[in-house]
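Severity: low
Component: inverse-folding endpoint
Summary: output formatting inconsistent between runs
Steps to reproduce: submit the following structure tokens with default settings.
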């Protein structure tokens, strides 16, 4: 009788036990992700690049009859070349901006004079000395240098990523697991489309800013490429980033307004028209889940975590779909079922 009661109690509280175990497991995994960030982040980057590389290599093999070894070597060479050119463009842009620091300081003072005069005409009292003091204390150059160093930090693990890629390419075997094939197909499709639209957005932004002779145009183009991987939030940030530099260069005139209009149009067309048309609902994620994943991965792995949030969340959803106990959670992540 006692055994029966114990068994019934276990069955009654089984869902609670499962939830507690999932919470403990999630906490342990999160702690491990934070602790092993230095190794896991380059490894995951290499995994995603490897997925894209395999898809492109298969296409080159079918289209141009190139062997997979040659195709992967070409892709690795292009990856390293992209990193080298990115660092070169960023360093030259920052050096050019720093050389013009005194000119921009004078323009900032002139802009403040114009702002104070405008406020006085509108009947608003402004403490000119206080505003000038605040302007002098704004660490514009430090912010620019910090922004450049943050971009450089994205490439500091490039050697480790390349090393992982070499070993993955050397040890790659044809997998027969339908689940792994499905993951690679979905993730590589998403990343290839995302890379394509990000390159288009970055190139268009670079053309706009270059025609307006904007300093740091190359760096803003690279930031556009990277930030475009962050859904919704990234393109908005990329749109406003060049505005302070344009304001320092030209003040509040048509250059700034035209840049804002054109860059906004670029992100709208690329993000809301082309990307939506090509991707459709392939990722099948609830918008709230996307926002939550951005916050989580940004807290765990910083800016790179936010860049990789969507593919990482898709992989998690596909793993949860494999078990009957966790499938309702996967359905909730895709927005097809509500968790009771």
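Observed output (run 2 of 3):
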């Amino acid at each position: 009788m006692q055994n029966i009661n114990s068994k019934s109690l276990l069955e009654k509280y089984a869902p609670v036990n499962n939830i507690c175990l999932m919470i403990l497991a999630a906490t342990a995994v999160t702690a491990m992700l934070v602790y092993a960030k230095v190794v896991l982040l380059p490894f995951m980057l290499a995994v995603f690049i490897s997925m894209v590389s395999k898809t492109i290599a298969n296409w080159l093999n079918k289209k141009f009859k190139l062997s997979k070894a040659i195709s992967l070597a070409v892709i690795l060479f292009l990856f390293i070349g992209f990193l080298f050119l990115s660092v070169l463009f960023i360093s030259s842009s920052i050096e050019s901006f720093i050389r013009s620091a005194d000119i921009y300081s004078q323009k900032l003072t002139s802009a403040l004079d114009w702002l104070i005069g405008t406020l006085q005409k509108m009947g608003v009292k402004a403490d000119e000395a206080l505003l000038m003091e605040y302007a002098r204390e704004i660490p514009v150059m430090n912010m620019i240098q910090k922004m450049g160093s943050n971009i450089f930090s994205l490439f500091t693990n490039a050697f480790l990523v390349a090393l992982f890629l070499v070993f993955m390419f050397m040890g790659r075997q044809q997998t027969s697991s339908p689940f792994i094939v499905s993951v690679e197909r979905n993730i590589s499709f998403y990343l290839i489309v995302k890379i394509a639209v990000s390159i288009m957005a970055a190139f268009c932004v670079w053309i706009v800013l270059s025609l307006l002779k904007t300093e740091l145009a190359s760096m803003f183009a690279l930031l556009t490429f990277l930030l475009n991987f962050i859904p919704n939030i990234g393109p908005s940030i990329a749109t406003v980033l060049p505005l302070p530099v344009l304001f320092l260069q030209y003040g509040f005139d048509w250059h700034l307004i035209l840049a804002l209009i054109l860059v906004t149009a670029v992100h709208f067309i690329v993000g809301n028209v082309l990307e939506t048309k090509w991707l459709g609902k392939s990722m099948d994620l609830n918008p709230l889940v996307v926002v939550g994943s951005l916050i989580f991965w940004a807290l765990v792995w910083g800016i790179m975590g936010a860049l990789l949030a969507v593919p990482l969340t898709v992989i998690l959803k596909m793993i949860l779909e494999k078990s009957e106990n966790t499938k309702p959670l996967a359905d909730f992540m895709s927005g097809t079922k509500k968790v009771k």
